[in-house]
What we know:
The complex is a heterodimer. Chain A has helices spanning 14-29, 40-43, 55-58, 77-87, and strands at residues 2-8, 33-39, 50-54, 68-71. Chain A is of the alpha/beta class. The mean pLDDT of chain A is 88. The A-B interface holds A 8-14, 16-17, 20, 37-42, 54-57, 59-60, 71-75 and B 120-124, 177-178, 182, 212, 215-216, 218-222, 270, 273-274, 276-277, 280-281, 284-285, 288, 300, 302-306, 308-310, 312, 315, 350. Chain B: It comes from Halobacillus amylolyticus. Chain B: It is a multi-pass membrane protein.
Amino acid sequence: MKKVLVVCGNGLGSSMIVEMNVKAALKDMGKDAEVSHTDLTTAKTEQADLFLGSEDIVESLEDGNKNVVKLKNLMDKNELREALENNL
Amino acid sequence: MVDLIMKDILGTPAILVGLFALIGLLVQRKNSGDVVSGTLKTVMGFVILNAGASVLVQSLGQFSSMFDEAFAVDGVIPNNEAIVALAQESFGTETAMIMLFGMIVNILLARFSPFKYIFLTGHHTMFMACLIAVILTTGGFSGASIIILGSIILGALMVLSPALLQPFTRKVTGSDDFAVGHFGSIGYFVSACVGKSVGKGSKSTEEIKVPKSLGFLRDTSVSVSLTMVILFFVVAGFAGPSFVETELSGGQNFLVFAFMQGLTFAAGVYIILAGVRMLLGEIVPAFKGIADKVVPNAKPALDAPAIFPFAGNAVIIGFLCSFVAGLVSMFFLPLLGLSVIVPGLVPHFFTGAAAGVFGNATGGRRGAVFGSMANGVMISFLPALLLPVLGSLGFQGTTFGDADFGVVGIVLGNLIRLIGSNTIVGIAILGLLALLFLLGWKTKANENKNDVDAA
């Protein structure tokens, strides 16, 4: 089971919405993964196969071994789907 | 038995919220594992929220003692998470009930009015429910009347707030895909209007090269830690080492004590946020799932950061200008006999940034600067004016931060104070909401007419 973690500054609002979008996209693609959302501080110590978030936030997650995808527009479902297709 | 159900089960907010989650999960026909884990996590989220509140209160108490010793006035730090966590002890049941029925009212209004917005910023729904519960209780409402009136007010705000901003939101995002659902919206609306009036011919903020070095402030726990440590240092310095070391820290060096207390406050906020995240993890998706079934072509109203990517520089500029305006306001507040509102990085970051994005959309650079400054002044003065109507909750050293909480609280609180009878208050409030709907309706109709004319 792959794990996707959506990250935003507060870990409350936008990451939760994106999490719902990810779940909907995965269902569409017929894939299964564990999806959750959290704040930046917590994300740094979490393990996941894919970290998603807006560009300016997830930049600081890149440490060379994390698979981080920077989204240009958080709410763009097509961009999100592309990120999922390329990384899962 | 009745007592057990009514008082012990429904009177315990954690269990009540857990029941909402349970119903939501059952309605969605989730499998049994998801139902059990979702329900337990929701209840646990509430327990974590309370645990965070007790950590935070300790440090807030120390801050108040020092501030009082240093300046002989009350200093108040606006922080939604803190005030809501503190309020759960006395107002938890009312908050939970108003939140649930407010969501239902939101879905009904979206279904039957032209405002098709589904307000998905769950923590703000909860904070607003809490504010309404506090004000109505303080005003003498109780029982069924508080829940009915409260949820109508909340549900109406959940569609009115995104509707107010939507013309400007369209300008920012260039589409009509989503709305902004955030209770700082009155501040953004003012910012957009200011931008409109000052920004003739001003270039967009996005043509400036801004260093990315301020990005780390978007991490809430970092920005809270930083603000609180600086604030504690300053206040401890003014209170003097002898006072701190004899009265508060039990001999520990005053700067070390200040440092640790600042981080204790931040840790409290972090714990509360973790609790809120767990608490909403099941409720918001259930709400969205139900809304999608009931309301055709519903528009999601999302948290303010959803618009940040559309103007990255305006975010930084907006935050800085809002914060500066907050610092300046701090010196004017006591002159007007109001409590000192210590500007917090978090409210100024999130609402200042959003105000900057809206100001930029209507008035370029000048709009972003002056619009977010207007927002900064608002989130300094509104919390100060709100304190008197919060009753006993107003003496805790913290208050609600964002603009809409201030406006709604002040209007409601003073209505209740001026009008003696609760029935008339109820009618007045409903009348006011109906008026707002009609206004919005008219504006919308005009817009549509213009669109048709333009086409």
